[in-house]
Amino acid sequence: MIRLAVRVRREDADVVLAELLALAPSGVEEADLEGGKIVEYAVYGAPGELPELPDVEAAVGGALVEVTTSEVADDWADRWRQFHQPIVVGDSLYVRPPWEPERDDLMDLVIDPGQAFGTGAHHTTRLCLELLVAEPVPDVPGVMDLGCGSGVLAIAAAKLGWSPVAGVDHELESVRATAENAEANGVEVAVDRFDLIRGGPAPTAPLVLANLLRPLLLCVARAGFAGGEPPRTLIASGLLTHEAYEIAAAFAPHGLHETDRRTSAEWAALVLRRT
Fold first, then answer.
1. pLDDT band at 120, cuts 50/70/90?
2. CA-to-CA distance for 188 and 195, rounded, in angstroms?
3. Rounded to 10 degrees, what is the CA torsion of 54, 213, 107, 183?
């Protein structure tokens, strides 16, 4: 088994990931390096199954920091499973991969990390989940998950009683993964493709979840929301702590102002409410 790893600057990560997924649609492994300044994407395969190195270098373009290939030990599948551990959020929600058993004392959410980008253990996803769990479900509890990935946030919202719940993602593989994971959890999530960079105003709902990197959040802030109607509440994650004030300021023209902030390691998540 061969591991092909690509390291890029964080500010280019979303664009690079979209290009890499076109070459390796089964998904990639993601890790933060150098305090979050560099992102490493890795794909695995037998010799001859991985994308050609010139294609990878062309896809990454000027964002490229380093490309490496290495052999992976035969027990890589077991070690990969050990990397994806279950988490407990807010003493109420249990997010686990399918090979871990349920817990009777917690609300169960099972996510297959083989389909997209993890089960929710990354700081950014966990912060967003913590803020979602703490959010009271209102009388009109619609949710839109921008950049839904594996669907963990949208599915958690549905489990917590929000409805209707929808999600969008630029990658077809993420759309499929969200739909499959929602079905596996017995909840309804309407999911579709949408390009947050080029698609214009973002789809919206009373609550919008946006676990996105800074460049995409700024794209959403510039483009606004469909129908000119911003959400009542926006939970924005995917931010380095020093980026939080910039993102809060970017959404202020939409009447959305920071009411809560949580941090974990070098990451931050915000709650922005319409005033």
1. low
2. 22
3. -50
Q: What's the mean pLDDT when you consider all of the chain?
A: 87
3-class SS of residue 211: strand
- Using an 8 Å Cβ cutoff, are 154 and 189 in contact? yes
CA gyration radius for the chain?
18
The encoded tokens of residue 84 equal 């994806």
Question: Is the torsion defined by CA of 160, 162, 164, 167 positive or negative?
Answer: negative
Q: What's the burial of 45, exposed, middle or buried (CB within 10 Å: 0-12/13-18/19+)?
A: middle
How many angstroms from the chain centroid is the CA of residue 41? Answer: 14
Q: How many angstroms separate the CA atoms of 205 and 59, rounded?
A: 34
* DSSP code at position 102: P
Evaluated on CA atoms 217, 117, 106, 163, the torsion sign reads: positive
Query: Domains in the chain, please, with CATH?
Result: 2-79 (3.30.70.120), 122-274 (3.40.50.150)
Is residue 116 helix, strand or coil?
coil
User: Binning pLDDT at 50, 70 and 90, where does residue 71 land?
Assistant: confident
**Sequence-distant (≥ 6) Cβ neighbours of residue 87 within 8 angstroms:** 94, 95, 96, 119, 120, 121, 126
Tokens linked to 247 = 């993102």
Say if CB 97 and CB 238 are below 8 A apart: no
Give the whole-angstrom CA distance, residue 180 versus residue 115: 9
